[in-house]
Amino acid sequence: MQLETCGEPLSLVRTTVELQTSHIGKGCDRETYSEKSLQKLCGASSGSTDLLPAPSTATNWTAALVTDSGRDSDLIFRFDGHQAAKIPDWVVPQNLTDHFTIATWMKHGPSPGLRAEKETLLCNSDKTEMNRHHYSLYVHNCRLVFLLRRDFTQVDTFRPAEFHWKLEQICDKEWHYYVINVEFPVVTLYVDGVTYDPYLVTDDWPIHPSQIDMQLTVGACWQGGEITKPRFTQYFRGSLSGLTIRPGTIESQKVISCLQACKEGLDINSLESLDKSIKFHFNPAQSILVMEGEDLENMNTAVRKVSYINSRQFPTAGIRRLQISTTVQCFGEDTCITIPSIDAVVMVLHPSEPRITITGLERLTQPAADFLTPGGLSLFQDLHIVSTVTRADSTTRQAAHLPGLLEEIIHNLDYCDVLVLGEELIPEQESLQLEPSSLLGKHLDATNSTSGMSIYGVDSMSNYEQVVRQVRYFNRQPGQLTERMFRLTCSELNGRYTSNEFNLEVTVWHSSDTEEHISHMVAPPPYMQVVQPPSMVNDLYPSHVSGVPSAATVVIVMCIAALVVAVVLGIYRIHVTHQQDVRLAETTKVADVNWDDSALTITVNPMENLEEPQCAEEEASEEEEDDDEEDEEITSAESDDSEEEVDVQLPRMQHSSKKGQSWDKTTRCY
Fold it and tell me: What ranges make up the beta strands (E) of 8-74?
């Protein structure tokens, strides 16, 4: 950029560079962490109450309000003159002493109509019967008014009650950060970190004490008495964000400046090389830079050193407009040359989105006794949190279809939530706990409930990792529990970047289940039940009771049974063989007795040859019948027990012997 005057001598050159960022976020690119996280990061006092939190199950009073959270995760509530919210009694700070702070972001324009009505941001009034306002913050005719009426129990004299400020920022339709520090009777207003004293203070009498409950509202004021039907009145028209009350303390100017500071602005490169004759100054937000000098060349060099900076790790993408205006003075004249303004644009590209990954043990099985230990059960012992981005190299730029390179980066987190899946924790039996010492030296805090635990604050991933590993689960009656499911998620920039959902399953291992499982494995079938002497089992396996045999005992019993069967079969085979030998001996003896009769004379009649075959056939038939009878007797004997065989076979052998001695009387043929 070059400024030329065609050789016209100049006595002074003034250049103004203005960065226009009103369309970005709340006036510029700021950190978009939650209000609590920002306060922790900036060192604000603890104990603040967020009156406009993100809608959820626990904070459902903002669910009906219109939100505009599409800008870089900023949580913005828009009020159109018909919406308001009642703050639950358990949320309202009960002890607003003489020292407290009210802070909010507000964007507001001129009120419609000639006689504008009051537009209430915050109001604490009687819930029923009467219509007294105890304290409220409202806008009236582009004036900001804070009302504070004390009770007679606190003061009993005429005291300041209304504080008025008339500022251009109230109706310029731009975002501004308002902080009201109350040190009664002194009240101080900060707008974008700049202090303003009230131009008007009116006094009033304290409010008479009563037993009427009060109702705190946002976006309007509640009128619960002196009318037929209670309703909202004095609706607000504009946008609000980060409305908080902190009782008992006031904020320092350093903390206020940190809470509203812009992360983008103008700067001068190589300030040490800037010519000493050039004078310059910035506005507090560093969005406007004014430079003055007498030498034209030095001014051209100085303007080239003006730069745009953004200190956010993940800046908001979009266009930033620059307007450069220059005025010159000639010798002896106020203005001799008119120089047109120049409009320029700075394009902020989308940053590489980080991918936050949580890894660790997903299943945890522990005996029931471990849940009763004083230290409880550590849920996330081996947890790891890693963040990666995709970087495009030269090859990727040439071939867009190819994936980039993954690179691990380090950045902050602003919260990690441990949620209980399924039924909520039973307060009398279960709890999630975190040792307070684990938060020391860190910008972290924690809240606990039956639905889980939330750890919040802007801090490094390593610090979050250390703290989450210290979360412990306690159960005073683990015998009634079989399993529990937990889910861990972490966030950066108030949910702009979220991690994967890491699920952990905790299973309780009961000792009774283990014993039953072992008994089923070693118990013999019903047809093999064997009773062992108790002394034998106790000697071999003292840890087992006598009613539950071990595997070794069952094997031994089965071996003995097999041996007994083998012995019985052997005895039976020997007995059968011996029986056959006895029969054979008897048969031989009978034959010898019959054929040794030397006195026997057989006379064969040739005329009776035809009868011999018939006799032979009859004799053979009788022998076959005798053999069949003997086979049937042996087969019948084999089907009986060995003891019965001994008792039955002996008479049969005697009978056979007698039968063998008398065969000659029946088989002889003459």
Answer: 12-20, 49-50, 66-67
Distances (CA, A) of 13 to 291, 297, 303, 335, 660: 8, 10, 11, 10, 156
Query: What is the predicted pLDDT for the residue at 482?
Result: 83
Q: At what angle do helices 642-661 and 612-638 cross, to 10 degrees?
A: 160
Alpha-carbon span 119 to 122, nearest angstrom: 9
DSSP 116: P
CATH number of the domain residue 110 falls in: 2.60.120.200
- C-alpha 528/C-alpha 522 separation (Å) is 12
**CA atoms of 489 and 503, how far apart (whole Å):** 9
Is cis: bond before 185, omega within 30 of 0?
yes
**Is the model's pTM score more than 0.70?**
no
170 within 8 A of 104, measured Cβ to Cβ: no
Calpha distance 470→436 (Å, rounded): 10
Residue 611 domain-assigned (yes or no): no
Q: Which domain holds residue 318?
A: 12-22+263-348
Give me the count of residues in the chain: 670
Structure tokens at 374: 């004083």
| Tokens encoding 224 | 């619960």
Could you read off the pLDDT of 580-595 as tens digits, one per residue? 766 766 655 544 444 4
H or E segment to which residue 243 belongs = strand 237-247
**How many domains in the chain?**
3
Q: What is the pLDDT of residues 505-527, one digit of tens each?
A: 999 887 654 444 444 444 444 44
CA distances from 424 to 56, 155, 372, 485 (A): 16, 47, 20, 10
Q: Measure Cα distances from 631 to 231, 577, 626, 637, 648 in Å.
A: 115, 14, 9, 10, 15
pLDDT of residue 7: 67
Q: Which amino acid, residue 191?
A: V
